[in-house]
Design the sequence.
């Protein structure tokens, strides 16, 4: 095997060296955080799907103060797969706090969050690991690796796959200037991405405690720091939908409207159009913010609570005050108009439109 020059452009964190047997030795390529809260019934499926990554991957099982056998199961995996599985126990802080704990403990060059009720596809997994491995060995900067995800909806035979072949170059490194136009149903979610670990730390990512829907912040805040991307057209992440207590269940979202609004406000706070120098990145983030504004607005309307309607108005006022240009683009877009019909009749129109879209795309 050809030697790698130690003075090459391989980042210091991933320096490759050789032992006396001329075998390649390197740090972990990928760290996967698996936030677990009372997950004993399904966490096995998630962790077992990650184990084929072998010694190149570390699986950080974060027990977020569970009251069932989650902690015991996490310890069992750590004992059975030392060097691969790591059990971390903490006081309950919510999903975002568990992801941050995973990031704190990560030693791999890349970082991925996988919810304990989801899983990954083996063949796709191997392909993505190969891309990450090559980027390390060749010293090629890679900030964000993107792949497809599957809506693994319970009791449905035909699964919807979110692909990006119409928007992103495939199997090559690219920048923001190379991307196409995203449809409103095609945005990159937490399920789609694997970030360079140090990028997440350097951008100051800080997900709030005891808050759901931080996935949107996780995939939004780091984007101005992302320069080099790579997309592989494989179905890697299988996103389970079907539990009654799931955070994306409509009734649950309405009950947690304040958490949705908090994340939305934080996204507005970290969107600074003047500091996002690449135009395509800026437009992408603005359009993604438009989607989240729509979700927050429709949940407030569906709550049929005047206090939440006022909170919705305050959210739009915050956007107008902080980013007037973004406000004009979003407020007077189709989604913005749709979410802001005046009066009770207008709210009924908004809900009717939402129900039609919900039926077509099958979400919630």
Sequence:
């Amino acid at each position: 095997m050809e030697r790698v020059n130690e003075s090459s452009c391989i980042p210091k964190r991933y320096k490759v060296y050789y032992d006396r047997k001329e075998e390649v030795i390197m740090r972990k390529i990928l760290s996967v955080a698996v936030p677990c809260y009372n997950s004993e019934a399904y966490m096995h499926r998630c962790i077992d799907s990650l184990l084929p990554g072998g010694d190149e991957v570390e699986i950080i099982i974060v027990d977020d103060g569970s009251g069932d056998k989650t902690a015991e199961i996490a310890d069992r995996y750590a004992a059975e797969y030392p060097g691969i599985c790591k059990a971390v126990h903490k006081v309950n802080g919510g999903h975002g706090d568990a992801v941050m704990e995973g990031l704190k403990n990560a030693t791999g060059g890349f970082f991925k969050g996988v919810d304990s009720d989801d899983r990954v596809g083996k063949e796709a997994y191997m392909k993505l690991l190969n891309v990450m491995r090559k980027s390390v060995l060749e010293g090629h900067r890679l900030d964000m690796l993107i792949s497809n995800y599957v809506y693994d909806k319970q009791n449905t035979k035909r699964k919807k796959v979110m692909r990006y072949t119409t928007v992103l170059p495939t199997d090559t490194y690219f920048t923001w200037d190379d991307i196409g136009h995203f449809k409103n149903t095609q945005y990159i979610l937490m399920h789609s991405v694997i970030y360079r670990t140090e990028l997440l730390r350097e951008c100051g990512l800080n997900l709030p405690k005891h808050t759901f829907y931080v996935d949107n912040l996780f995939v939004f805040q780091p984007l101005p720091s992302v320069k080099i991307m790579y997309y592989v057209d494989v179905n890697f992440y299988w996103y389970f939908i079907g539990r009654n207590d799931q955070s994306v269940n409509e009734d649950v979202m309405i009950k947690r409207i304040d958490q949705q609004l908090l994340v939305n406000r934080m996204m507005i706070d970290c969107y600074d159009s003047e500091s996002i120098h690449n135009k395509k990145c800026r437009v992408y983030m603005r359009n993604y913010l438009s989607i989240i504004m729509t979700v927050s607005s429709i949940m407030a309307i569906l709550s049929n609570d005047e206090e939440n309607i006022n909170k919705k108005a305050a959210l739009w006022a915050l956007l107008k005050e902080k980013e007037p240009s973004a406000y004009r683009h979003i407020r007077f877009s189709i989604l913005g108009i749709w979410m802001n019909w005046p009066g009770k009749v207008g709210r009924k129109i908004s809900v009717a439109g939402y129900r039609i879209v919900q039926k077509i795309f099958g979400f919630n």
User: Anything to note?
Assistant: Residues 4 and 16 are 7 Å apart (CA to CA). The radius of gyration is 21 Å. The longest strand covers residues 229-241.
